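hey so i finally got around to running both of the ones u sent me last week. sorry it took forever, my laptop kept dying halfway thru and i had to restart like 3 times lol. anyway pasting them below in the order u listed, first the sequence line then the structure token line for each. didnt double check formatting much so if smth looks off just lmk and ill redo it

first one:
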Amino acid sequence: MLLCSNKKQTTMSKRLDIKHLEPEAYNIMLSFEKYLSKINLTKAHKNLIKVRASQLNGCSYCLDMHTKEARADGESEQRLYLVSAWRDTSFFSEEEQAILAVTEEVTFIHQRLSEATYQRAVKSLGEKYLAQVMIAVIVINAWNRIGVATEMQPA
């Protein structure tokens, strides 16, 4: 769960705290997160989505949080180190590669989700699981935008 912490280095100005300024919207985000805990995505898949999207978006707060969660859920240090280079290793299954490709393309949605990536994901994951992957990617991207825009920092 995302908790707001706007600790800054002394050279940064303090940004607004959405959790306190817009609690209704923040609670909707928490509801999305609660929904994700009920769907069929494995913890490993959720963690890969959260880590990769947070890397792509440059959200240090979320990246710190979700790598810690992934380790607590049993993810190996080696795989976490290699998430950004997933195409260049054999450490990720076909399903995980499809999930990481969808995560990247949905995160960079202005470049579109390619037909090749979509078809690969449907073949590897099935439509229902892919729909859940897409929802998870959308949710972490929303959290990342809150974290980056408000310059949230890891504790």
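and the second one:
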Amino acid sequence: MKRPRGQRRHSTAAAVLALLGAVMSGLASAQTLTEFDLPPGGSFAVGITSGPDGHLWFAKFFGSKIGRISTTGVFTEFAIPTGSSPTEIATGPDGNLWFTEPIANRIGRISTAGVVTEFPIPTPGSTPQGIATGPDHNLWFVELTGDKIGRITIAGEITEFAIPTSHSESYAIVSGPDGNLWFTESAANKIGRITIAGVITEFALPALPGFPAGIASGADGNLWFTEAIGNRIGRMTTTGVITEFPIATPSSSPWGIVSGTDGNLWFTQRGSNSLGRITLDGVITEFQVPTPDASPYGIASGPDGNLWFTEGFKIGRLTTGAPATPVPTLSDWMFVVLGFGLASLGVGLLRRS
């Protein structure tokens, strides 16, 4: 039996308005930002990563501690015996967290129970920075002043490989989609690739100045990196083809970058005190951090599907509302246009009923 005409219109309008609510809710959820104050006693959080225990782990530079924060904002901290000012941190293949100690010239390992072990780097004054787990189940790290890429086994055995360009100042490293490690050479304005056998290839950026800093592996099978001085986000294929996308905000100084659960790349902007999102086709959206001059630095995709980032004396969380698997993306303006269109349609149907 057919429903009355007015009832059908009410049902259609209700469905349209419900869809509008879902669209606008999805847009709003991408901008929910919460900040958590670090415990007192030395601060300045730098690197951050998603741990094997469902928590976020971060390096506390001035406090010489490794911190842990639950997805609900509960902190726990562990002191490093040498007081070495850690910077970057990564989850290892052994279920522990591994971190760099530039002041002590060591690589540290901490269990999820807080037990710390340290391993000295053979090259004196190497200043280790970024660290990542490689496809060979070892940890790989960059040496800022040592001009080398280091590899450390889970047993603590370190091997070093010289970077061809001297004074290249490598900052970050990531495991690529091609089975190699990729790293930034900030002072040399290059992106480097190292095989697990230690063979290094370098790729120069098209534009100067660039100062590539952070690097991440994208859902599209490419490498994505930040250009802190060039104020751009770069995309690079595994064959070395580079495309650059300018950031609208001047002097935003993009730094850390990570692939989110929504399939986009998310990055911190130290100069403009904000977070940025770039789609795989290069559309950039920026989100302001509430705390003035927070200087967001490291960023990680959390076990809760949200983005977690360090901002000196706080840890920030950006709730994306994204599902666990990548979805097709639309720009925020397309969401707004679609939302207003659906609203007009829904109101019109209600009036005519």
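quick thing i noticed on the 2nd:
The chain has two domains: 1-30+332-353, 33-321.
anyway thats it, ttyl
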